[in-house]
Each structure stands twice: as structure tokens, then as C-alpha cells.
Amino acid sequence: MNDMSGGEAQREPLIAVIDEGTKTIRFVVFSSQTKKELVSHKLDVVQKCPQEGWAEEDPQEILSAIQQCIEHVTDVMPSMGLRVSDIAALGITNQRETTVVWDSETGEPLYNAILWSDIRTAVTVDHILAKLQDNNKNYFVPSCGLPVSPYFSAVKLRWLIDTIPAVRKAISEGRCLFGTIDTWITWNLTRNNGEALHITDVTNASRTMLMNLDTLDWDPLTCKLLNIPMEILPKICSSSEIYGKIALGPLKGIPIAGILGNQHSALVGQRCLQIGQAKNTYRSGCFLLYNTGNKKVHSTHGLLTTVSYQLGPDSPATYALEGSVAVAGTALRFLRDNLNLMKDVSESEALAKEVLSAGDVYFVPAFSGLYAPYWRKDARGIICGLTQFTTKNHIIRAALEAICFQTRDILEAMHKDCGVPLTKLQADGKLTCNRLLMQLQADICGIPVVLSSADDVTSLGVALMAGHAKGIELWDLTKEEDSPDYIGDTFLPAASTPERNLRYTKWKMAVQRSLGWAATKKSEAMTDERFRLLASIPPAMFLLASFSMLALSHLVPS
Question: Which of 66, 189, 467, 496 is most open to solvent, judged by the fewest CB atoms within 10 Å of its CB?
């Protein structure tokens, strides 16, 4: 690239970011002086649903989209007076829990990437629970902070090993590598002459179920119980350090210096760097993170304990409580695509405003079960409270309120776990452009909702991490303070306390009605596993146990 400045003035360092979301991939270049986006390009990736409840993407398509975005931005930079050589570092932020396995020799994926929202692993969960004392879904919580759920990477990896012959063959031959999407991207960016970085950061690792929150390393006992070979796992690094340099392409030689899971990156981008600060990201789902500082808080009310970030290999980890809402914007797309209630999701605000309330209609969008704080995979979506006067406008407004009620569910649980109520909620994500939604959120939770003025806080967060890294040091996040420059519109609650509490009580009634819809007899996997365990008992002991149970049954009143 040509030097557009003529070499007279000192050039401003730039920070680049790969933002790999569930549906959209962006490449962004930030100013180190203003922390504003200078140029960006984005492309969508096709999501595949080969069966009901399955969600996949082609890992090669993800790489291709990233490369196209990089090429587009680097091509237009000279016309804007920007040089690629001024990019001081690259950060990577990505959809979490999404699982990839590939061949270390050929670089080819062994299967499509299984997305975070995929629920095919319900039977795998039953297999795991059958081996745990009391079928306790919280068995691993003390080490990893997560319940046994189809949501997390380890369960998806277990399914791949159990189901895909090519994965088992690659493992037996020492050719299989596992990673979340950040690992897959970094491995390919640094691959050269048979060498590549196989790494992840603590935030992504903390979403696998395999990382110990105290040691910040893979937990041998968990890996053994889940029968996950540790040799296929990447090295865990901090969120802010120079990991290595890009090997090929327009960005060759630029150091990769920051990695964060997308929700953790939004937390940093919102400047929630102090204990007690929280943000909620409103997209396809909602993800609410509450900074608990260097102290882990194990939830007793259905939340997850996770790592917020780690500001370098010599810094302590900062932790968070997290509540995840599976369906937020997805509910609006459902009303558009499945029920034809609107032509575009952008119409939802105007249509919902045509009625003064939801008309006592409640919509629980539990399409794939309920996440935090319920963790009920047997829940299914319901719309209740319908009357002959209900219109599509009431249902659309109820869908917006459902996003807010699910967020309040999480805030209530966080209050119980931490003992301190939140004084404000910082919001970001595509859905925050719906001003009615933001006002409903303030009304239903009874606290101000504060938007960020940044174009995209997710990209900004990992840019800050990359710029903070030792050897880059454009910013010092340990001294980062709130600034009015980053605060956008604020929505204040207008509803009375009795009104919001009555509506919330009815929401809880609706949630109760959504539970148990997908409940059936124990899955064959669960039953077969128990019979297998019984079959391993010597016949004499089995008969003795059977007679003992029979005798006890006569002593217990019916």
C-alpha cells in the first residue's frame, strides 16, 4: 500500500477486528485515537438446518467470508488515506459454544460447525447424566460453572465423537483438532508450512464445560468423565496478548493480540469493567453478563459462572454471572416467517405501537426449551391469554414484552445471587434500535436502560483488548473510566411498581404453562445406559438388591 501521508506526519496506529457472528461476519478497522470505526465490510453466512433442532454452518464458508471482508476493506483503505501497514494488531471475536473439528494435516473440517443454538445433543445429555450421581445436571458446576446442557461445546464434541466415523478415525490417528470458532480462525490465519497456532482464550474456553475456572486450564477429571481426549484441545491463553502473526494474505505479519467470545467482547465494549456493572445484548437471543470482578460467584438460581476476560497472561481473570435467553429477535422472525404477521421485523415497533398494551396476551418463545434461569429443555413455545378481540398487534407487542420478561427473569436471579440490585442496564445489539422495546424493558424491570453510542460494541470490545496487549499498548484498560462520549440514549421506567409486578406475575404463570410439553418417557439412551449399568452388576448381587427392594416395598405404605 502507498503512504498517503507523504511520510511527513506520524501515522495513527489502527486496530483491526474480525467479528464472526452467528449469521454475519464483519471486518472492521478502528482508530486508536477516537476508538471509532473507520471502515468495515460484512457478509452473511448460510445457516443449515438438516433436521429439526439442528443448526450448522460450513467452516470453510466462514473462512471465505472473512477473507472476502478483509480483501474488500484493504482494497478501499488507500482511497480513505489509510494504510494496511498502519494496522498495529488484530482482534477476533466470535459466536461462542459453536464447535468445529478438523484434520490437522489437510486442514479440512471433519464435519460442519455445530452452532451454539443446536439441540441435537439431548440424547447425549441423557448419556452423560446417566453416568453422574443422582443424574445431577449441576455435577460439573463447581469446576466449570456450567450445567450439563446441549448448549455447551463439550456435549456437541461428545456427539461428534459418538456419531461421526471420520472424527473417531482422525482421533485414533492423531489428526483431529477441536476448537470453538476463534480457534478455527486463528489456526487458519497462522497456518504456514505445516505449522499453525492451536489456541483459544479463557472466555471461549469457559463456555466448553471443560475448563476449570480456578486453574484456567482444561480440567482432567471432567475430560475423563466425558471421555474427551485432551490432546485434541487447544492451548488456553489470556484475552489480551500477542499470540502470533498472520501468515498470509493482505494482513501478513500483523500480530493477533486479542480474542474474546462475542458476549464478553460486548461487555468490554460497554465499559462494564467494574464490579456490579452489567450489559444485555439484544440479537437473535439475549445475553446478560454481570461483572463480579476477580471473584467467582456460583449461582444457586440458574445462572452461569463464566470468565469475563483476562487482561494478559500475568493478570487475574475477571469473572461474570451470565444469563442466556435462547429466543429474542428469533421470536419476531417467527412471527414474520411462520405466521406472516408482518413483512419485515423492522415493522414490529410500529405495529406494536398501534395498541396501548398486549391485551393481557403472553408469548413464551421456548422454541428449543428455556435457558437461564430455568434450564428446561422440555419447555415449548406458547401464546396464552387470547380473546376474540386479540389482534396481530397484541401478539407482536407480546413478543417484544417476552424479550423484556426473560431479561427480568435473569436480573431477578442475579439479584438473589449477588444481593445487590442493578441500578441500570447497559444495552447493545441490533434490536436496541427498537425504541419501544427499550422502553418496555425499562418499564418491566424498573431500572434505566442505557444505550451505547458506539456503532458496534462487540467489535469495539476485542479492539480494546488487542490495543491493550503487551507489545501493542495503545490503551490501558486498567485505567479505563466511564465517559459520556460512549453513552447514548437512556430510557427511564414509566410504569408503576404494582403494574410491572402484576404483569411479571402473569408472565411467570405463562412460563409454568410452557413447561413439560416436550416431556416423554426416559429416552432410550437414558434407559439403555441404566440397563447397561445394571448388567455390569454380578448376578448374585443383582438378585440380592432385587429381593431387598421387594422386601422394602412391603414396608412402605402405598
Answer: 496
The pair phi, psi for residue 508, each rounded to 5°, is: -60, -35
Question: Which has the closest alpha carbon to 367: 383, 378, 380?
Answer: 380
Mean of pLDDT values over 537-546: 47
Q: Quote the pTM value.
A: 0.84
Pairing of strands 255-261, 87-94: parallel
Cα gap 526→503, rounded to integer Å: 39
Residue 192 C-alpha cell reads as 504456514
Strand partners of residue 452 = 487
DSSP-derived 3-state class of residue 1: coil
State residue 415's pLDDT score: 87
Indicate whether 520 pLDDT > 80.
no
Q: Are strands 87-94 and 99-103 parallel, antiparallel or unpaired?
A: unpaired
3-class secondary-structure state, position 556: coil
**Do you find a cis peptide bond into 234, omega within 30 degrees of 0?**
no
Computed over every residue of the chain, the mean pLDDT equals: 89
Radius of gyration of the chain (CA): 25
Q: What is the pLDDT of residues 394-430, one digit of tens each?
A: 999 999 999 999 999 999 998 888 887 788 899 998 8
As a whole number, mean pLDDT of residues 172-176 equals: 96
Cell 501497514, residue located = 85
Distance CA 327, CA 366 (A): 7
User: What's the Cα-to-Cα distance from 290 to each of 265, 278, 293, 311, 325, rounded to whole Å?
Assistant: 13, 4, 9, 17, 15
With CA atoms as reference, report the closest residue to 518 among 332, 384, 370: 370
| pLDDT 10s digits, 96-142 | 999 999 999 999 999 999 999 888 998 899 989 999 988 898 999 99
Cell numbers that stand for 120 in this block: 441435537
Concatenate the DSSP letters of all residues of 227-293 into one string: T--GGGSPEEE-SEEEEEE--SSTTTTPEEEEEEEHHHHHHHHTT--STT-EEEEESSSEEEEEEEE
Contact 71, 18 (CB under 8 A): no
d(CA 303, CA 414): 8
Cell 418417557 identifies what position?
A: 521
pLDDT of residue 522: 53
Q: CB-based contacts of 4: which residues, under 8 Å, 6+ apart?
A: 78, 81, 82, 83
Q: What does the block give as the cell for 240? A: 489480551
Q: Please, which residues have CB within 8 angstroms of residue 497's CB and are 6 or more apart in sequence?
A: 446
Task: Fill in the DSSP letter of residue 311.
Answer: S
Banded model confidence at residue 254, pLDDT cuts 50, 70, 90: very high
Nearest to 255 by CA among 102, 96, 474: 474
CA distance 306 to 234: 18
Q: In the structure, how many helices (H) and strands (E) does the chain have?
A: 17, 23
